[in-house]
């Protein structure tokens, strides 16, 4: 009887330790998400406020994101290997490993947008910069929603993001058509147009990854793939 009681206490202690580690992983994922969200804000300022100093601050932050990403991945693998988690915990860990990859990719695209802002700086602002800003604001809102869904493990918010992706896709098509029909005169350089095409591509991919984060949160909660 004493032995059984001791075993029960050990199991409870092990479970408590495991839950603490899970909570730390969730907090680290949110910390990583906050850094990526800030990188997006810096890229937005660089593009639409012509704030080149903001663009230079993205790279050091992205290195922090990459370091946190690698550590979370290692910690998730160790927990799966050493703790033999039950089904719901395994679902959380596997989905967490996937969604941090999505968040990390959004950070990479934010860094790319900062680079585009620097290359665009010597040229006059594009006539379609306003449309691009609308698209960027939609993507930023989607990222904020995805992080809110993750923070609260709210499947409803997670699933709502998917519907918002359609508007970003429409923005992409509209701006691409505008850029494709833009007429250049007197030997005007093609580079600004090409950079704008790259910018809408990066934003569209950021929206896709934010959608993925929302769907993975819904999967964690419900066990159903969106």
Automatic annotation (TrEMBL):
Any idea which UniProt keywords this protein has? Cytoplasm, Phosphate transport, Transport
Domain PhoU: residue ranges: 31-116, 134-215
Q: Which domain of life is it from?
A: Bacteria
Compartments annotated for it: namely: Cytoplasm
SUPFAM superfamilies for the chain: PhoU-like
Could you list the residue ranges that cross the membrane?
A: none
Q: What is its main location?
A: cytoplasm
Pfam families, per database record: PhoU
Similarity remark: Belongs to the PhoU family.
Q: What does this protein do?
A: Plays a role in the regulation of phosphate uptake.
Quaternary structure annotation from Swiss-Prot or TrEMBL: Homodimer.
Name under which the protein is recorded: Phosphate-specific transport system accessory protein PhoU
Query: What is the species listed in this Swiss-Prot or TrEMBL entry?
Result: Pseudanabaena mucicola FACHB-723
Gene name, please?
phoU
